Protein 1
Amino acid sequence: MEKIKIAIAGLGNCASSLLQGMEYYRNKSAADAIGLMHWDIGGYKPYDIEVVAAFDIDSRKVGKDVNEAIFALPNCTAVFCDNMPKTGVKVRMGKILDGFSEHMKDYDPKFTFVVSERPEATKAEIIETLRESGAEMLLNYLPVGSEQAARFYAECALEAGIGFINNMPVFIASDPVWAARFKERNLPIIGDDIKAQLGATITHRTLADLFEKRGVRIERTYQLNTGGNTDFLNMLNRSRLASKKKSKTEAVQSILETKLDAENIHIGPSDYVPWQKDNKICFIRIEGKLFGDIPMNLELRLSVEDSPNSAGVAIDAIRCCKLALLRGTGGVLHSPSAYFMKHPPVHR
């Protein structure tokens, strides 16, 4: 089958895991492919994807081949496929806007972005690149809190006439105005804020659902997360966290028959621990009452490599977006959004 041609905004750890995965599964079969939720979607396999354009702002990535740039600092995720062939696609300078938090200038360059001194790309240049590359969809992997930049790239996708997969917690697919714009152009969009394959949010949701189904009334819960990648460093700026906390909190609240008061639910990033690198540690506690109003509680510690945990989900979202393009289906893809994202327009 012909390749699914994608463009990426933000060549960080998540993009690194996605591209490594596309190559890693190339010589696998359904029988020996560990770690995928779906081997085949509409005839497309995990390796039937090709990056044709990429944008970043880090001087160590801009100008390099995509498959070289994904291993450049400050990326620190696990390398599980180090035999990455050159793609011939160079990373282009993107648009900064609010994609870089000022507090990150104060850290060692190996942990943070080194913003390129090259001129920022204009909107017209990015749209031209998307069109000339033949990209069918654009994946948004910008840092949390990049509200302006995320909307800028969504606008570029609309004007270039391609699909959009919003992997970060800026509300675009779940914003009725943006959803209507993609519907009007008959372009598919999946969003917002990608779930991990087996991460903090999906685990928390599943446990909350189990409590509900077994008749346990949940009274309080928290989810505390620590990590050492640039995502956690970026989120030390609490002003960038509003949409992230809302996304993660609503994902859990949506599973509950009776919503918890704000004081009884706390979900969100907690701290940055540099030596953890791309490892994310999550602590979940759920308190409730069961038969006879007897109190009980559950505590869980989850440790995962953060970025590979979302890569397989992204591969599935890409293939669903491709099928929508083939079928001429535009607007929000509600079922994929609910399945793959923390903050879809409609939780299911």
Protein 2
Amino acid sequence: MPSLFDPVQLGAIRLPNRIVMAPLTRSRAGQERVPNALMAEYYRQRATAGLIVSEGSQIGPLAIGYPDTPGCYLPEHTAGWRLSTSAVHQADGRIVLQLWHVGRISHPLWLDGQSPVAPSAIGPTGDTRTPDGLRPFEPPRALSTDEVRGVVAEFRHAAQVAKDAGFDGVEIHGANGYIIDQFLRDGTNVRTDEYGGSPENRCRFALEVLDAVAEVWGYDRVGLRLNPHGLYRGMTHTDLVETYRTLAARCDERHPAFLHVVGALDRPDEDQATPAIREAFSGPLVVCGGYDRDRADRALALGADLVAFGTLFIANPDLPARLECGLPLTEADRESYYTPGPKGYTDYPAWIGTPGTVGASGA
């Protein structure tokens, strides 16, 4: 059985361990949405992860839905992200950019008055943060068939920006209620064209995005993130396992670098979709979602190839060493998850002692 600390080949990328830093929205790009030196330091500190998946980066102006999140479609985004890729590579790390379009999880106040776009004109439930504070979500407008293809082209363009910025690859954000997830679910996708109806058709958009991004990178430097059981903001799904088995099988035909699934191989009573994905997809599988060292070991024993950690990386920049040596873990300050500046972001020190000595810095 592989260990978390064994090397692994992830497509074209050789990793020194099987610990992935999961994508984490931290809202440090400012109102300009341009990656900056503070972000570069944050990623540099965490470069001992086998692989860093960056926070989600918007692929275009209609992809925005949150404050101070970075973009990946303008020349200034290219230059800004080069700060992070250079810093990580100088620390002997590997980093891929997560490509993100929020779809209906937005508001006209983020979009210069335009309506959010989605596969169908079905709005999410609840409120969202806007420049004017919390507001109820507003109904999106359904993309035309030609517009769907235009969004695919935006993903391709963002992939090229990521390549020009020096990343080692990209991850497509297909999870958590955002636009690809919205196409996959029959509760948010009631289209009657080739992008709606059967599981095959509802998977079409995700696969076209995968193919377009692979035109830039090759499949062996592209991953796709999924969250089958994450029914966010009023999403519903009646054929969950069949849809995700279909998507995984079609991905398997293309041989992407990895699938990254928020799910559990060790809890079959709660999660039937992740085992179905593992069965249908023969390539590297990353699992994520509240894992600790013990659960990570079980996941590897049950067929996962890598394990992604999110929250633990916030306050433990040297998480791989702490997991390997059984060192104490610092608890993150939730109040500073999305606040500007270094507090709760780059001010968590690495462990400065050794096993058996007193204290962890930051603890």
Protein 3
Amino acid sequence: MAEMFYENQADLERLKGKPIAIIGFGSQGHAHAMNLRDSGLDVRVGLYEGSKSWSKVEEAGLAACTVADAAREAQMIMMLVPDTSQSQIYREHIAPSMDAGKTLMFAHGFNIRYGQIVPPPGVDVSMVAPKAPGHRVREVFVQGGGVPALVAVERDATGGALQDALAYAKGMGHTRAGVLLTTFAEETETDLFGEQTVLCGGVSSLVKAGFETLVEAGYQPEVAYFECMHELKLIVDLLYQGGLNFMRYSVSDTAEYGDYVSGPKVINEQSRQAMRQILADIQNGAFAEQWIDENHQGRTKFIAMRQKDLDHQIEQVGRELRRMMPFVNPKEVTPGSGGA
């Protein structure tokens, strides 16, 4: 059984009086900084000079400073900038201040798992990884609740790394919902696998393949969009609430029967073999090496793939349909833009 921790197993007092640096003020950064601040902890936010987030930090009533100053002042340093930026930021601005007894923290284990950041001996290395986007982490905390999180310790130099990480998780509100003990390797490998085979890669490819199959067979693109993308949210909401069986309970018997007889034809042994290879590439570092190299080479292939999907017919059709459905709160991504 997985080991879980809750409110009575975490002591927030461990962090009282310990300066905490949140590096970055994006989706996760703002939630971490504000939740910890509201829990009575001493927080500052480290940013690069000239960052557009500087004023946002100050407007939120938080202290803003350079990454180097934040790292120098803090006892605990949480890295919440994009994976591909972390190693350079660490080397240039944080490493000089990583004295023995300090704690270096992460919300995702990529840079530790693949050796992009190697903290010095004497430094605790731990992780608190919320299982929700930052805005949701903040929203639920303000409502008096918390979202689940993962906790891991890569190095316990002080003898109190896990207890400090749990205290941090309590300050975030996670122990209200439950914090699951894992390792940096397990969190990183399962996270990458889930993103690539199911949550992002798998769903995107399945939706596009279904849409293309219907359009190629002569059906209207608008009808194909509704069947293969728009209605997906309805199914995901049912899965989120009650798992596969609740989803099947909630749909028609015809849909449930089709699930059983046709699903395995789409996701078959060939699909599973591809998943095994993807997992192997994650485990042996091949994917990480490929992604790191892509960033070193200027992201040309990545940008080309992003543009190709921005131009896909399902995106063009969907954009026009969503504009007619204000109740879905439609969002649009312009060419050349994208996430961090």
